[in-house]
Design a protein that fits this description.
Aminopeptidase, 4 helices, alpha+beta, globular, about 180 residues, 9 strands, binds coenzyme A
Length: about 180
């Protein structure tokens, strides 16, 4: 497989990460609204370590969680892309599509626009047969994005996230799937 390309859409550029992304990424990872469906907001150190892991995964897999910027002004707004979950569940091993955008950029359809392009790359260039997406059952915005890009949920795929404690409110998760045509 060729190495991860730049992905361009009408309004967005999906690219590898730069030093200048670290600060705005750490800011959005500390925003309680952005992180309300995750166990905790991230510290700056945790946020930076996440970017390191993302970049390592790009090198290993030839795909990853792309830094997303607006074509209009080159502003970094968050990430959309593919990752390989590290935990074990009924549906693993698998490749997951995910997204996280700064709050001021919600509601413009940026996540679905980027995700459509990531799915196309995942099926055509990477050669994946299926891509999944998962989130806590409370995360309706993320489930909306999954539906907008044509992913479907079967309730029998719903699962309890194995990395969270039994009584954690975010433990119940949904799984959406889409296959390449
Ligand atoms: C999920 C997320 C990426 C959606 O991105 P987006 O570019 O806003 O997507 P859309 O514009 O298509 O909006 C999706 C839905 O979010 C909701 N939404 C949009 N703007 C919103 C806002 N400002 N406040 C609250 N909800 C909003 C709407 O229900 C919308 O659905 P609709 O278009 O049918 O009305 C974004 O909400 C986000 O970054 N959330 C935090 C991180 C996260 O939870 N990631 C997923 C973890 S699995």
């Amino acid at each position: 497989m060729s190495s991860a390309p730049l992905i361009k859409t009408d309004r967005l550029l999906l690219r590898r990460w730069r030093e200048s992304d670290l600060h705005p990424f750490a800011e959005l990872n500390q925003d309680e609204l952005v992180m309300q469906h995750f166990p905790n907001p991230l510290t700056h150190e945790e946020s930076n370590a996440m970017v390191e892991r993302i970049e390592k995964a790009f090198e290993e897999n030839g795909f990853g969680l792309y830094a997303v910027e607006l074509n209009a002004n080159e502003e970094f707004i968050g990430f959309v892309g593919l990752s390989v979950p590290r935990f074990e569940a009924a549906f693993t091993p698998c490749v997951e599509i995910g997204w996280r955008l700064a709050h001021k950029h919600w509601g413009y359809g940026y996540a679905p626009e980027a995700a459509e392009a990531v799915l196309a790359d995942g099926f055509a260039r990477v050669g994946l047969k299926e891509i999944v997406s998962m989130t806590a059952t409370s995360n309706k915005n993320s489930m909306r994005v999954m539906e907008k890009i044509g992913m479907t949920r079967k309730t029998e795929d719903d699962f309890l996230h194995p990395s969270l404690a039994d009584n954690h409110p975010l433990k119940p998760h949904v799984l959406y799937r889409i296959s390449g045509s």
